[in-house]
Each structure stands twice: as C-alpha cells, then as structure tokens.
Design goal:
Strand order of the largest sheet: 8-7-9-6-10-11-12-13-14-15
CATH superfamily of the largest domain: Mur-like, catalytic domain
Number of domains: 2
Helix content: 25-40%
Structural class: alpha/beta
Radius of gyration: 20 Å
Strand content: 25-35%
CATH topology of the largest domain: UDP-N-acetylmuramoyl-L-alanine:D-glutamate ligase
CATH class of the largest domain: Alpha Beta
CATH architecture of the largest domain: 3-Layer(aba) Sandwich
Order of helices and strands: EHEHEEHEHEHEEEEHHEHEEEEHH
Largest sheet: 10 strands, mixed
Number of strands: 15
Shape: globular
Amino acid sequence: MLRERVKKVHFVGIGGIGMSGIARILLGMGYSVSGSDLKDSETTRSLRGMGAKIYTGHSGDNVSSDVQVVVYSSAVKENNPELLKARELGIPVISRGEMLAELFKLKEGIAVSGSHGKTTTTSMIAHVLEEGGLDPTVIIGGVLQRLGSNAKLGSGELLVSEADESDGSFLKLSPAVAVVTNIDREHLDFYGDLEGLVGAFARFVDSVPFYGFCVANADCTNTKKAVSETTKRVITFGMSKEATVVGENLRLSGKGYSFSVIYKGHELGDIRLGIGGRHNVYNALATVAVAMELGVSFETVKR
C-alpha cells in the first residue's frame, strides 16, 4: 500500500545504460518519470518519446517539490545540485542499486552476476524464457537487438537482470535465482582482496530464499569457493563431469560452437550457437541450467 503512493520518480544520470533500463520499466508500469543527463542522446530522446521529462544538464531546478524519490547513478557526485536540492526538500535519495532492489521485490528475480558474460547470459536467459512463454521483465546492460532496447516490461512473474558486483550493490537484491558466471580478480579496490570479493559472492548466493536456487560455474575455482558453504540449492554448469549441466563434444560449427548437453546425467541433445567463443558455451550452459530448473523444455532452449 505504501509503495503504491510513490508515483513520481526523478533520475540523475538517466542516460546511463543501467539507469535508463529501470526508467523504461517504471514508465511501462505507469510511473511519472523525469531525469537529467549531461547531454542529449539517443537514449534520452527515446525516454522522452516514452513520456519521460528529460533535462539536459544538472540543476537544482530540475527537481520539483512533487518528486517523491530521486535515483542517482554511480557516476553522480555527492555534491550534485539535484541531490542537494532533493535533500533540502526532504525527498528520499537512493542509488540505482536500491531502486533495482525494489523492482526485485515486485517479481521473482533472476540476478545474473559474475566478472565476465553477464550481459550475454542475461540476454540468453531472457530470450529462452520468452520463447518458453514466461514473458519476463528484462533489464540488461546493453541493447537487445530483437527488442531495440535495454529493458522490457513483461506480463510474467519473472524479472531477469544483471547484478552489479563492482560496488557491492548486488548484495541489495533479493533474487529467487542467483547466477554466478565466474569470479575473476576484479574490483579489488572496492573489496580489498580476492577473499573479500569471493566472500561477497558467497553472501549474494546466500540471499536466495529456501525455494530458490543458485546457478554456478563448476569450472571456476573462485565460484566453487563462493558456493561451497551455502545451504541453498546449487545447480552447477561447465565442462566438468561433476556439473549438473555438462557441455561436451565441443566442435566448431559455422560462426560458433556446437556441443552436447548432459543434464543430471541424461543427454538432452545438441545446441548450436550462432556466436563465437568458448566463453559463450559457458554462458549458454548457465542459460540451460536456469531454463531446465524453471520447466522450459530443452526443445525450446536449443532453438
């Protein structure tokens, strides 16, 4: 009831790929959206076409007294005049990660994390779930060619989104499904060391509820460490025979790889990828893991 009272949202840095995706979803849900960015762009023009009020440049005058919450991107400084004006007016100011976390409370969230492959894996999962008739809401860190956008409001119960580990904001999410593509030595300026980074992923995995599950790379040592002590259900993927979803018999086929899929010891058939790179086999295996656990048929997945 209280959440429904908030209907006017202002974004500082609305032109960014992460911010604009959330803004699109809120516009689709019927919220009144305004926002500012340093320059006009195709993104801001698109948002304006959807009904958002867009300001070029940052100014306290962009924040009207009827705005009910202000969302800022990680690129925005604390002394930004719009943040200062919002606080002066007593308007709540939250980060992009906090607003994404609110959207996760409205849907069954599938959060895709990892050092590499987040955007591709999120795109693959979203596509397969759409093909499976689940019509998910999607927020992605890139423009999906088939959508011509970085976000889509679906009618289904699922939300598929990238989860940003760079600043720890993925720990604000409450996903039903947590995907970890891999963990590399990145963002150590924020976490201090590799142990701190792996520990954050462990907490991310543990945020999954008892009815949810984690999808983790069985061939990544750091990912295995992150999920090693969780009590939550873990579905693994990789080339290792120990994985829940195994890719084997890899061979080059046209622009990409073809490979056989083994799920829980049973051979399901072959998948042929239209994009190159062995890393995309891993992204596809993560997608298979999510899809199979959600009841999407392998025939749908391999299309």
